[in-house]
Every structure is written in C-alpha cells, then in structure tokens.
C-alpha cells in the first residue's frame, strides 16, 4: 500500500465557548486525528456533538482555545500575515448544509460563483471571469444560461451545486462539506454525493464530510470518525467501522440506520447508548487506542482488551 501523505494534522484541538462562565461549552475537547491527501474523512455524531465547530476551527473561522492544526506541516492557528491567511483561506473551502442561507440572494449566480475569483484576483479580465464561471457551472452539472439568474430560482439540489461551484472557483485542495445533503430530498442526495465524488477524482480534492447519521456517509467516506460530546470516540476505515463497531456509542448510531431489507428491519434492535457502561475507575486513563490496524477507539486499557477479544467475533 502506498504511504499516505498527511494533508492535515489536528493535535489536541480544543474549542471552548463562554470559557469560565456557567454556560461554558466544550464543543471540541482534545481532538487528535489526521486527514490524508485525497481521502474523504467522514465525521458523524448527533446534533450538538461539535462536528461543525471542529470544521470551523480547522479552517480558522474560530481561533482554537488550545491545540494545533497543521496544514501541509504549517500551523493554521499560528500568527500569520494577511497574505498567508488569504492563501490558506483559498486552499480550504466550505460547503454548507443550507445552500440558500449561504448564497447571497441579491447576487446573480455568476457573481455568487465569482466571489472568490474576485477576492483572490484569479481572472485578468471580465471575459476570463465569465469563461471560468461558465466552465464551473458545467462542471457541477448546470449550464451557462443559469449564470444570470438568482439563487431563489433554483431547487435545493441545484443551489447546492451552485455552492459547490463557488467553492471550486478558487481551486481549493481541501473542502469541508458540512451536512451538504441533509436539507435535500433523498432522491437528490445521491446525485450531490456522486458529484462530490466525481469532483474529488478530477480535482484531487481532500474532504471532511460532516453528517449526523451514518447512512450516506459510508458511501462517500474512506474513513469515519465518530464524535460524542466534543470527543472522538472511534476512528476507522469506513467498512471496518460498519463491520466491527466497538464503542457502544458507534453501535448505537449504527443500530439507528433503517435498511431496505424487511427481514432485517423486523429484527433490527435499536441500541441506546448509556455512558455509565464504562464504569471507569479513579485514575484510569481513557484515550484513543488502536484496537486493530488503523482502528482507534476511545477507551481504557481494560476496555481495549475486551474490544480486541471481540474484534473477530
Ligand atoms: N458560537 C458559539 N457560541 C457558543 N456555543 C456554541 C457556538 N457554536 C456552537 N456552540 C455549542 O457547541 C456545541 C457544538 O455545536 P456544533 O454546532 O459544533 O455541533 P454539531 O455537531 O455540528 O451540531 P449540528 O449538527 O446541530 O450542527 C453545541 O453545544 C453548541 O450549542
């Protein structure tokens, strides 16, 4: 297997809100993981567990409370010049859940898409700018004729395509897709996921794909990280996570996915996660531990031994 190159290294990242106040929230609480060049890392967990905050802190929309994010070996959260920050901002783009809320309704589609081109001075003339816009519209499955319309004239799926074209306009390397399909009809979801997969191959992109359930994320992700209350509780190759989930929270998320097979559905048992099952003793160290190659679970030494025993069970 080829050695994978790390594009992003997240090290002991913390993002707390309202620090020191009664309503302090530890939205991201000591996360450590890598994102490899060209892969899709899925990040899943229930609403409020800190997925969006993780994404936003990685691209420095928030200043981290503690920890580091290395991008190509450089700390994104270090002090940097305006020019350097602008460079990072170009390399890392974001696609949002609600394409309508994230597209300025007063701008024509051409101007929405060209926003980054203008900010970064990527076109020398208006002709070049429009040529690029038309090209991007075609890349995402829309057409030249759409350039003069306004976002409200499009369906949800088409708006998401516009959001994708806008992100692609600055030729990024890394895209955070924050629940990009959650607001779309199920029939449209697969189309958008397929488009993202196609673009990844064509443009050599790396994705962090955020989702609150595990059904579609399996289809797009190479690896999946499961988050619970600001912490990563399991991280593994996508198939491995589905076939050998160890953390009881991962098992609970998986048990919530309905399948089209009626026999399976009749016997499917919803598992509810009860954090008290861990029964950690005073002083017991709980951290990410490797239960099998490339498969990490947040657990104690004692739990690791149990998990290893059941790995092939
Ligand atoms: N700017 C903020 N100020 C204070 N608290 C915040 C802020 N942003 C997020 N939070 C809190 O941090 C926690 C994590 O929120 P976050 O949006 O990252 O979760 P999420 O897993 O992405 O959820 P969702 O799927 O609902 O977007 C939540 O308790 C949220 O209320």
From TrEMBL:
Keyword set includes Cell membrane: no
GO biological process: peptide transport; transmembrane transport
Nucleotide-binding is among the record's keywords: yes
SMART domains per UniProt: AAA
Key words, A-Z: ATP-binding, Nucleotide-binding, Transport
Cross-referenced InterPro entries: AAA+_ATPase (IPR003593), ABC_transp_ATP-bind (IPR050319), ABC_transporter-like_ATP-bd (IPR003439), ABC_transporter-like_CS (IPR017871), Oligopep_ABC_C (IPR013563), P-loop_NTPase (IPR027417)
CDD domains: ABC_NikE_OppD_transporters
Source organism, top-level taxon: Bacteria
ABC transporter domain: residues covered: 8-254
Pfam entry (one): oligo_HPY
GO molecular function: ATP binding; ATP hydrolysis activity
PANTHER family, per database record: D,D-DIPEPTIDE TRANSPORT ATP-BINDING PROTEIN DDPF-RELATED, TRANSPORT ATP-BINDING PROTEIN
Protein family per UniProt: Belongs to the ABC transporter superfamily.
Protein name per UniProt: ABC transporter-like protein
């Amino acid at each position: 297997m080829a050695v994978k190159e790390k594009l992003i290294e997240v090290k002991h990242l913390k993002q707390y809100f309202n620090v020191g106040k009664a309503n302090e929230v530890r939205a991201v609480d000591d996360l450590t993981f890598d994102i490899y060049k060209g892969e899709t890392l899925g990040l899943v967990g229930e609403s409020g567990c800190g997925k969006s905050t993780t994404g936003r802190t990685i691209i420095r929309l928030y200043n981290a409370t503690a920890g580091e994010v290395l991008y190509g070996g450089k700390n994104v959260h270090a002090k940097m010049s305006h020019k350097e920050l602008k460079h990072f901002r170009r390399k890392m783009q974001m696609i949002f859940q609600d394409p309508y809320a994230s597209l300025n309704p007063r701008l024509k589609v051409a101007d929405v898409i060209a926003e980054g081109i203008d900010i970064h001075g990527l076109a020398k003339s208006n002709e070049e700018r429009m040529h690029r816009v038309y090209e991007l519209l075609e890349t995402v499955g829309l057409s030249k004729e759409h350039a003069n319309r306004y976002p409200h004239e499009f369906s949800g799926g088409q708006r998401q395509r516009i959001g994708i074209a806008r992100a692609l306009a600055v030729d990024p390397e890394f895209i955070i897709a924050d629940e990009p399909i959650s607001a779309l009809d199920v029939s449209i979801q697969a189309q958008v996921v397929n488009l993202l997969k196609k673009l990844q191959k064509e443009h050599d992109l790396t994705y962090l794909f955020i989702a609150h359930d595990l059904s579609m994320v399996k289809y797009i992700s190479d690896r999946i990280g499961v988050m619970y209350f600001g912490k990563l509780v399991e991280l593994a190759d996508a198939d491995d996570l589905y076939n050998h989930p160890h953390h009881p929270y991962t098992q609970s998320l998986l048990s919530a996915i309905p399948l089209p097979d009626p026999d399976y559905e009749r016997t499917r048992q919803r598992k509810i996660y009860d954090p008290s099952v861990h029964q950690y003793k005073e002083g017991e160290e709980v951290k990410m531990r490797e239960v099998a190659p490339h498969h990490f679970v947040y657990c104690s030494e004692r739990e690791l031994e149990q998990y290893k025993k059941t790995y092939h069970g």
